[in-house]
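request received
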Amino acid sequence: MDYNFNEIEKKWQDFWAENKTFKAENKSDKPKYYVLDMFPYPSGAGLHVGHPLGYIASDIVARFKRNEGFNVLHPMGYDAFGLPAEQYAIQTGTHPAVTTEKNIKRYRRQLDQIGFSFDWDREVRTCDPGYYKWTQWTFVRLFEHWYDLDWDKARPVSELKKIFDKDGSKEVNAAKNDHEPFTAEQWKSFSETEQQQILMHYRLAYLSETLVNWCPALGTVLANDEVKDGYSERGGHPVEQKKMKQWSLRIRAYAERLLNNLDKLNWSESIKEIQRNWIGQSEGAVIYFPVKGKEKTIDVFTTRPDTLYGSTFMVLAPEHEIVDELKTEDNKHKIEEYIERSKNRSERERLAEVKEVSGVFTGHYGVNPVNGREVPIYIADYVLSGYGTGAIMAVPAHDSRDFAFARHFDLPIIQVVKNPDEQVVDTAQWNDSYDAKEGVIINSDFINDLDVEEAIRRIIDILEEKNIGYGTVNYRLRDAIFSRQRYWGEPFPIYYKEGMPYPLDDSKLPLELPEVDEYKPTKEGKPPLARAKHWTTEEGYPLETSTMPGFAGSSGYYYRYMDPNNDQEYFSNEANQYWRDVDLYLGGDEHATGHLMYARFWAMFLYDIGMTVEEEPFKRLINQGKIQGRSNFVYRIVGENKFVSYHKRKEYKTQRMHVDINLVHNDILDIEAFKNWMPEFKDAEFIPEDDGKYVCGWEVEKMSKSKYNVQNPDDLIDEYGADTFRLYEMFLGPIESHKPWDTQGIEGVSRFIRKFWRLYHDEQGNFDVSDEKPNADELKILHQTIKKVKEDIDKLSFNTSVSQFMICVNELGEKKTKKRQILEPLVILVSPFAPHIAEEIWNRLGHSDTISYAEMPGYNEDYLKESSFEYPVSFNGKMRFKKELPLDMSKEEIEKAVLEDERSAKYLGDKPPKKVIVVPKRIVNIVVAK
RNA sequence: GCGGAUGUGGCGGAAUUGGUAGACGCGUCAGACUUAGGAUCUGAUGUCUUCGGACGUGUGGGUUCGAGUCCCUCCAUCCGCACCA
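response:
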């Protein structure tokens, strides 16, 4: 009788739920282990086979660690705020909470049937007021803190006020927005509103007028990581640049820590590299260029201050604030036209026109502060307002963009760096700039003959001595825009008094989402929350109408899991001290710059304010690969309802069409099923292969409905059971690599599960395990397997563990082993992978408790010891035959034995061997003259 | 353009410090049992072969007794960034 997975899997899932088998305690003498999955957005489409890949891997680790005696925290929840439910609400009027609740139920059902060992008592939902209270609470803390660059941590704004009272702004080295410096006396003379305005330049959550990514189709602004190639990541709508007043988080203050800490993290090199790029550190200098005839200077940022003498013009970004002052009656029109032009061009067009040189001369000149050279000031959109100071000193000889610009506008080009052995050629002859990262400085007064590195150091000293600039580090990372003009998100705990924002008192949290009549913006273009009645404080002050973005709720959820039902605190100090950080975090690499950056920032801030004991939240991070679809195709003869089989398709003029993968087995089309698939194919005709079968083409593509290649896990679990499904997902290949889903292979794993079951049962299906003593061979295969699986789980190499289980079960099956001393440890070892069948067998072995906490067997080296080894014998590196020899034989004896072997004579010929290499327990290689 | 990763049978993929290439599984072929097979079991299965062997881990070279693994060159694919001064 075969294994009845339907009945048995249900039985144990119910058992786990009823007994709260996986409930984790915050107090324990056991060592802790925190395994976390990136929580899902509960979409209407439900899970597909790609989602559970990471969950299965983390579940195996969680279960394995429990068996190894760890107190394991393995929670799950939902990232439940988000655009799809809101878009649906706009279309249908259904409250997003209703849609979300429905989708969550479906997710939960799908998750439950896979047999995960989550502690569901710790579930969190970002849209639950009991949860988002703490998102709001953290926002208020961010609002009330500033970043001290000298202390390298966040400090309360109350302390900043004291510093201003005492010394004004001079002594403060903070991450801030620019403002005019002031003295203590000035500070005290400012009005309340003026003081608030100043403080806003320092707060870690701040309101400011900035250039934002505005997405008209979604009616909201987006953060940089939510925009890809000028389109919104969600929905693919065009995005434009717009100046708006928005909340931002000052993540830039943490740029250096975010960058430096990467070295300490056990994350994949690729993700760390993506984050390094995103942070984009560059060392250089800011240099002040006076504007001729004006009381103004333009600050430029450069990574190559050593080329200062080669600067022959300056370029400002069109959005640069000084541009207004440079307008004169003569050039006003030209400048405005140019600015208008670059503003109207979408991001997309700007990118497409990279190579086209454009710009406009302002009619003004800057003065090079080291040699007094007057250089023309241009405006051009190849200079970005958001990077550096939004202004550059152009060095056309050594920068390709500046070079192209100089050629286009016929500006001088002066070489200031050369190779030591290079003949200097007139720059007029050059076809391109010489982007010299090393070399010797020429034409540069004091710094002539220095090499680039020295020259940079020297020139920065000069700049600082003369007070005409300073050395600095610049970051590409931008502050995170934190407001969204949407409904389905966390309301800001902020009200306005005389136009200035103030935080709500903690006792007023959570500030719950109000009911609205419609989920659209108002007629005046205000966000949906402006529709709410009485959206004010008790005193009548208006509340903020934007909501927080998707990453708000996901930035700190891993802390809430530590103490999810605490209504007094975000999480208790004790809970945090015990669980500390996430030991293993699994999720997709699409979150490399978004979630993983914000979460680290969030965690660092909470660390700074003394909430937590670890600065970095995720010690080890694994990115599971995506599962791609495997599509099938049929070939329709153009203009006919006739289909040609794969190998004959070239004989006709055909058109390739996707066909539902459920109608295809082993690439052979079920013709009858195909005819019934869609009415138009009812009378279709077919030109099959010569054996009468219709063969389909195939290709690996993204899994999507329109390609008819979506594999639904529910169907597979119905057909094969959860244990088989879990094993197969793991067997597919390394967890981190992308791989195509091919349902065919699941049969092999299904066979394995049945063979495994048969090990413990006789042919009639009766449980059959004996107390006989195992022999050396049986112990050897068991302990080999224990060893391999332990090592594999450490490396998260689950595909090779499954192989090892197959090898082990095949071998024990051949030996007809029925011995408890072998089979009992084996079932514990298999249980993290296939927990249902393992529980059932464990139960039949006579245990009344769950297998989830059974002690994981250790391996004993003694059982693995061999007394002989089958040496591969090579001649000139080519393996010719194998010879079994005892392991205690000396090298000389091995050499002798091999050379005396009759098979050697053939390869030796009549000459003695030139050399014999013997590596004990590895190989014998004999070198013969050719 | 810059940075990162990956290239192994028909397919998914294995291969400690350089030491038997292709484990395990799918598929395919043959056989057994069957009324039947998309069930089960057994065996074969990298390519070519004059059956001696030869060739084989993207390409070309190098180091080595020995290279999928180390070094150099080039090619392809995927991912990230991209006017970042």
